Glutamyl-tRNA(Gln) amidotransferase subunit A (Reichenbachiella agariperforans), 447 residues
Amino acid sequence: QGYLSNITSKNTDLNALSEVYEEEALVQAAEVQEKINNGSAGRLAGMVITIKDVYCHNGHTLQSASKILDGFKSQFTATPIQRLLDEDAIIIGRNNCDEFAMGSSNENSVYGPVKNAVGKNKVPGGSSGGSAVAVQAEMCLVSIGSDTGGSVRQPASFCGVIGFKPTYGRISRHGLTAYASSFDCVGVLAHSVEDTALVLEIAAGPDEYDHTVSTTNVPAYSKAPEWAEKFSVVSFENINSHEAIDSAVKQSVDRVFDKIETLGNRIHKVDFTYLNYVLPTYYILTTAEASANLSRFDGVKYGYRTENAKDLDSMYRKTRTEGFGEEVVKRILLGTYVLSEGFYDAYYTKAQKVRRLIRDEMKSLLENNDFIIMPTAPTPAFDLNSHDRNPLEMYLEDIFTVQASLAGLPCISIPNGTDENGLPIGIQVICNSFEEEKLLSFSKYLK
Ligand code: GLN
């Protein structure tokens, strides 16, 4: 009831939820109460969550914030969502997001932009902007977003909440709308490390429907103690003093390193060799994968179909032209280009090689050090409509988040102060593959 009343008073303005399951959530809550009374409640009993509009949820609308999925309803529930439901989580609504999770400001949505609850006409970040604002504005306790290149961490940073991306392959993607399949991760937005850990523990692990999920043991993340040992952390000097970084963000990162040093821990200072290549590599590979993944939306199988077709060919063409938004069209075109004969080796193959170099360098540093710390985003939340003319400016917002995604490493964004106008700032911590337990322990120590 509390969350519903927050939704009623705030969602018209913030636009964080594109659908509220009021009646259903109350029925679910009553059932959970019953189970609590008779001692059969699951481990998430009473945890009210929202899910990003990219997850299948049986019988419910799934639109990926796109016109092309107009009228589509899921016929099954995504594995991670089902696992949370099986432990008695209550889903109160579906989050607005960027169309097909493409964006860094949540302004590319058929439902209109989401607003950051700090006010001042700021974006919430993207693409899981609706998820971040739902947690920020207490419309739910936890939200399930998705993170391909920063979509959970960057909005978490802009909204002052925790954003967590596990190792690639830790949580099943079955039922998550594919954007770039070799990057896509299920992510968690929450206020506390404890809630994040519990949700991860329940959602993670093998799934017969997704064979990219690792069979690596799922530890009891929720029992991870606060970090208590000395440690060694990598500081990428060319990142932490990058010219695009706002001064308040710089101060926030410096504060963390000062504390680490004062307490007698080791800081390994080094430049990241491939910094200039992370964004081009990310945008070549993800647009390539997106152009293939989005070919399924053809007017035949899902959602929207044009009414102006003369024949099959014009039906495909018009459906896609009318159904996809501008950013999505741009990425399909870029992706098709880099995959086309004649350009494939120059762009796609080359980018795959660079991806491997990036991953190897990160992993080798993490063999000898415990953590990498850097800003989540170069700036705090920016103004609505301020980046809509220059796409490169918008892509620059992802400069620090795509690195962990290219390497498939687990990463968390933790709130770390505000700027002089009260805008939240987050810092990122990265760990080696499948070291989520260590990352969560360390997050408790830092927070
Ligand atoms: N902003 C990045 C992009 O547009 C990240 C998106 C994401 O992680 N889904 O690709």
Residues 52 and 435 are 26 Å apart (CA to CA). The longest strand covers residues 411-418. The chain has one domain: 1-447. The mean pLDDT is 97.
